Request: fold
Amino acid sequence: MSQPSLHEINDNIQVAVKNGRYLTLKTHRMTEMVEKHIQHALESILDKTQKGPLIHTLYTILKELVINGCKANQKRIFFDEVGLDIKDASQYDEGISKYRETFSEKMSLEYGMKARRKGYFVLIDFHFDNDGLTIEVVNNTPIAPQEEEAMREKLKKAMGYNDIAEFYMDQAMMGESEGAGLGLALVIILLKGEGIDPKLFRIMIREDRTIARLEIPFSEKFVSKRDVA
Reply:
């Protein structure tokens, strides 16, 4: 059975957006085609809700979140293959060192296929109406404790910046030019640049999954899930 084409899937996305208020995409790895589906989904939703100018910011953010989710799943597979426990602090340091030394773009595609076979995935859920848009990116592995700590620290620091370049320069001066949380800090700064409250972006860690939730109000009637939790 042949796989549906890019245009066929995008047509289905457009119909789903036109006829409803909910859309879900699922992937195991980030590819050029997946990027195009994500962009088309966002464009369709923002066109419907007349918020087209947000496309660049939201696409940049969403791409970052999906890449993070795919990498987290692939990293889990890598640790399993080298026989290390990602939850153990000492084994994590050894494993992440090996991961950074050996992982490549080619391996990313290979591990994306492994993720599919092993049942690891990333879901992208869109809920939208004229009052707002909620996006949840869910990968079905929890984040490692060491990465959670680093991530939350960088998110906290990012709250004090309004300029992406300044943030990255300061992190580089402290020897933190890569690693957990830097991409998520970008999310915070981009939201602030659009005048969107960065508190509407949350990372939630459950026993069996990690959820990144982004809420974008379109009107004063929008109700954040934080307010009803």
Residues 6-13+21-228 form a domain with the Heat Shock Protein 90 fold (CATH 3.30.565.10).
